[in-house]
Amino acid sequence: MTKSTYKMSIITQKSEAFLQKYLNNASPVGHESSGQKLWLEYVKPYIDDWSLDNYGTTYGVINPGKDYRVVIEGHADEISWMVHYITDDGFLNVIRNGGSDHVIAPSKRVNIHTKNGVVEGVFGWPAIHTRHGEDAKLQPQIDNIFIDVGAENEKEVAEMGIHVGCVVTYPDEFHILNNRYYVGRALDNRVGGFCIAEVARLLKENKVELPFSLYLVNAVQEEVGLRGAEMIAETIKPHVAIVTDVTHDTNTPLVKVKKHGNIKSGKGPTVTYAPAVHNNLLNLIIDVAEEKEIPLQREASSRRTGTDTDAFAYSNGGVPSALISLPLRYMHTTVEMAHKEDVENVIRLIYETLLKIEDGHNFKYF
Known about the structure:
Elements: H1 13-24, H2 33-43, E1 49-52, E2 58-62, E3 69-75, E4 80-86, E5 91-97, E6 109-114, E7 117-124, E8 146-148, H3 154-159, E9 167-169, E10 175-177, E11 181-184, H4 187-205, E12 213-219, H5 227-236, E13 240-248, H6 257-260, E14 270-273, H7 279-291, E15 297-300, H8 308-313, E16 321-328, E17 336-339, H9 340-354
Parallel strand pairs: 3-12, 3-13, 13-16, 14-15
Antiparallel strand pairs: 1-2, 2-12, 4-5, 4-9, 5-8, 6-7, 6-9, 7-8, 10-11, 11-17, 14-16
Helix pairs in contact: 1-4, 4-9, 7-9
């Protein structure tokens, strides 16, 4: 196996251009196909084979055909809304498609996805001048937010191609803040798909010959219950799974550090202690971080991690699994923020860990 080598700055201009295109594309839960095509197009030069399952989870394989199978995984879907009811006067009521935050909805522009293309709309809200007395207490709730598409009635809405079940996304686009933070919607967790793609690129550029088959899994439907990971774990039947997702930067106003843990952007990725996380695999990752001087933070989850780690860990009679997370500000908003150095260090940590895993590596419990 070749030794670890990479540039000080491992994210290239080409990589960053892909990240921008990938994040700007809408890939809501259950409708991830366009994003999966972008991801696969980018990663194809760095893999030997690829496939996808019936619900859209896409994966590339490096060094296929080996008995020992290692997975590195992120998830591709983004939160969204779904049209639930159309009023007689042409307004749309919605339900969540994933963990969408109703508090941020009022005054946001939206794209409604129909078979005829995108229809633009806005989340309306009563003007402040109209909210007095009891009305001053009015707050956005899931049952009172609504979308205005400029229609006069329900018939006009139907003529636009909008119907119950149409998916609604925000159009907010990627940008870089202060040359330090990636900002946009859907960093949760398409940035994870980006990280594993960059690992594949580094393996290819550095001519690393892995002694096992590596599966780069870009899973669907994490936001509604880890469903894509559940399905693909049964297909691949991996021996090891390293999952990457986002976690909360708790060092911003209004977040209680004692309650949610002390995690800060720019201080490195996190590893999680949890029942689903295999201690020996976790210890290997920590040892790698220390050896390669990759900054690392720690967090703890009782019962479950809430990520695809749980799906892999409890599949196939138990798969040694671990979670490497990217600190993220303002999760499930349209201005999610991730520190550029943290993104690079997630990539480095996964890459370096793979170089330490041997063919048939047995992560025994004791």
